[in-house]
Amino acid sequence: MTAQPPPEIPDAEAALRALAERMRPAVAHGAAFVGIYSGGAWVAERLAAMLPGDHPVGYIDVSYYRDDYAKSGLKGGAKRTELGFEVEGAAIVLVDDVLYTGRSVRAAINELFDFGRPDRIELAVLVDRGGRELPIDPDYVGARLVVARDLSIVLSKDPGGTLSLAVEALAGN
Amino acid sequence: MRNPQLNANGELTHLLTLEGLPADVIRHILDTAAPFASIAEREVKKVPLLRGKAVFNLFFENSTRTRTTFEIAAKRLSADVINLNINASSTSKGETLLDTVDNLVAMNADMFVVRHSQSGAPHLIAAHLNAHQRTHVHVVNAGDGRHAHPTQGLLDLYTIRHYKREFSGLTVAVVGDVLHSRVARSLIHGLTTLGTSEVRVIGPRTLLPSRVEAMGVRVFSDMHAGLAGCDVVVMLRLQSERMKGALLPSAGEYFKHYGLTQEKLAVAKPDVIVMHPGPMNRGVEIDSAVADGARSVILPQVTFGIAVRMAVMSIISGN
Description:
The structure holds two protein chains of two kinds.
Chain A (H helix, E strand, L loop, with lengths): L11 H12 L8 E5 L2 H12 L6 E4 L8 H4 L18 E9 L3 H11 L6 E9 L11 E5 L6 E7 L5 E7 L4
Parallel strand pairs in A: 1-2, 1-3, 3-4, 4-5
Antiparallel strand pairs in A: 6-7
Chain B lengths: L22 H14 L17 E6 L4 H13 L3 E6 L11 H10 L4 E6 L4 H11 L6 E7 L5 H15 L6 E5 L6 H12 L4 E5 L15 E3 L2 H5 L4 E4 L5 H4 L6 H8 L3 H4 L7 E3 L12 H4 L6 H21 L1
Helix pairs in contact in B: 1-5, 1-12, 2-12, 5-6, 5-12
């Protein structure tokens, strides 16, 4: 339980529309959207459908590239990274649901380079909650908010495909 | 006493045997192996999970194939691999097993992959490390005596699940020299733990353990009866030294009764899969037409084996 008032949580669908509008004039029409599992994958799929152009969608699981393996081990079942397009020379937009420390993005960039040398990588996030621990800056942001360190922001998808955001106590704290 | 393979949180920290390993631990290994299978398709065929870790392949008994698959698995995880063929070095100078281990720990070993002709050798090493608070050093059994070969058992389970999805509803036959086979023992324990409907062993009485029924299997000495309605047939390697020891008359005689041919396989289900841990004796336990035939999944087993060993190493190393 926290004594602080609950933070103002943005509506996920509104944040998604805002993100798409920011990307629309700037993103290359052939750019591949690579979602980081699991929330980023949902956002990448939605963005590919909303934006003009032909955007191949890829999925990346960063479990093998995380920097906390020595501390936390390999607990959850990792998913298969599936890119389905030629990374060498590609324009890629890396997509995540919530940007926090930047460690997942660092891991994802490292992993992408094991598939080839992309022409460029941009970063799009549904929510930027601040708190960066690495020099990583998103190119496109749907919504910004500040929440306490012991809280986690979780994206979920209902059976109809609608996205929603919720605040949960951080597991393990 | 606590299961020596698990840490205080019930997580896998050594892999010694599938006997007594909880079903959820086995399933976690199989689930973890699945995404590793695709790493060989990348431009860079490795991931950095075990970067900077030293994996010692400690082979007191020769096995080029098993050692190679462990070496590939460790290298795909970016570990440094040191191969030691112990036959040829320390033990001939009189050093004990645990002295050898202590010396390698002093060289900052992080993991031992152990193959030994004595049952229980990997267990002894793990217990020694646990007793001396070296819990950051992990042990994988790569085959000990007649006891266990858990990574082979796991890759067999992975293969069966890959082709058949569920274990419930399956009839699996293990055929041949069950008596001397650590592969059979590990697989049977895994199959029963995961709820396989029926596990059968088929072989001449001289090659079946005397109390094999206690492992929860149905025993057949006739191939036709044993193979009828099977979903999976696992052929075991017949070691030629068994022939010398009067357990069997001849290779030709064995093939006639227990060698797997298309004809004998016809009584199994039409979508049966045929497995073999290798190396095969063609014309002894299996006919070439079956080994190279449409129902054979013997080569996919080898490929899956690397992913399964990657999963085992990355799970225990993180616990």
